[in-house]
Amino acid sequence: MLVKMLHDQGLRSHHCFDAGLISVGLAIASWCTSMKAESHGVERADRWGIFVGEWAPTFFGLGLALSVYEKD
């Protein structure tokens, strides 16, 4: 089981929740940076923000799975 393996390796639910929050901040930062640093317009900035923003649900999902595993 993947969750058991991650838990045995030392990953805890709060690590994943922290990573999810950080990825939300990184999505906003990458969008703002892309808007200012590149001349390709809003479309490219949106793609960067969405790409990084898709990490958050993964981290939150892993956090929830680990949280349930830690309660057992």
From TrEMBL:
Protein name, entry field: Uncharacterized protein
Native organism: Actinacidiphila acidipaludis
